[in-house]
UniProtKB/TrEMBL annotation:
This is Uroporphyrinogen-III synthase. Belongs to the uroporphyrinogen-III synthase family. PANTHER family: UROPORPHYRINOGEN-III SYNTHASE, CHLOROPLASTIC (PTHR38042). InterPro entries: 4pyrrol_syn_uPrphyn_synt_sf, 4pyrrol_synth_uPrphyn_synth, UROS/Hem4. It comes from the Bacteria. One of its GO terms (molecular function) is uroporphyrinogen-III synthase activity.
């Protein structure tokens, strides 16, 4: 028995450590690595083009981290006269720390749907909106906000690149007794389906998946997992993931 943590970067390592300390055998294997996006260097110019009162939305902590780094490297700063938004609490906290400004986010529903439900998003007539995101982010915000009067630009601050693992390395996970996999993005789910050898797919489909959004749950169902094999966390942060896993997984 064991859990495979696929969340990239430090967050994945931290979650693995949290699980091990709680008495759950967990292996860290980031199938995806995060790198600078092709539009990252456009961030300073895009921010300078905004008018006072316009909106800046960050959809993830990675977007904040990469945007903040490029602003520091180029001698620019975050605007003080625009409104900042994030899709979740952790991203909002990081963005607020970087900008030294208040950041709005949806408390109850930490995703794009929740963000669109905020009062500030109901009428965006005349506002320019910059969305800081990954290279292949969801299209819900860019699709919906123009219908509410906004002029929207997306900026790909980071991208996810697949790690190249050998077939033997990929087969190791079933041999190691992994029976639960933590999935935090659609790219990771697609990686599992595309790169895990076909001979291991019976094992893969037998694993429980711990996912962080309704969208990921739907993708897993469409890929062939049974409903009772998919566990949805309340929120996307590591504490919520840990709480969810400990609620059903044997631990000391």
């Amino acid at each position: 028995m064991g859990i495979l943590v696929t969340r990239p970067e430090d967050a994945g390592q931290h979650l693995t450590e949290m699980l091990n300390k709680a008495g759950v055998a967990a292996i860290y294997a980031p199938f995806i690595k995060i790198e600078a996006g092709e539009q990252l260097n456009d961030v300073p110019q895009k921010l300078q083009q905004l008018a006072a009162g316009d909106y800046v939305i960050s959809v993830s902590q990675y977007a904040v981290q990469y945007a903040h780094q490029v602003l520091q490297n180029t001698g620019f700063g975050w605007r003080k006269d625009v409104h900042y938004f994030a899709v979740g609490r952790k991203t909002a906290a990081l963005l607020s720390e970087a900008t030294q400004q208040p950041v709005h986010y949806p408390f109850a529903n930490e995703n794009s749907e929740g963000l669109l439900a905020l009062p500030q998003m109901q009428n965006c007539n005349g506002r320019r909106v910059i969305i800081l995101r990954g290279q292949s982010g969801r299209e819900l915000l860019p699709q919906q906000l123009p219908q509410r009067g906004a002029a929207v630009e997306t900026v790909a601050c980071y991208c996810r690149q697949a790690q190249q693992l050998s077939e033997a390395e990929l087969k190791f996970f079933s041999r190691a007794g992994i029976d639960t996999i933590v999935i935090t993005s659609g790219e990771i789910l697609r990686y599992l389906l595309d790169f895990i050898p076909k001979s291991e797919h019976n094992w893969l489909m037998s694993c429980k998946l711990v996912v962080i959004s309704d969208r990921l749950m739907q993708l897993a169902l469409e890929a062939g997992w049974q409903q009772d094999k998919i566990i949805l966390t309340e929120k996307a942060d590591n504490l919520s993931l840990l709480k969810t896993i400990l609620s059903f997984y044997p631990h000391s």
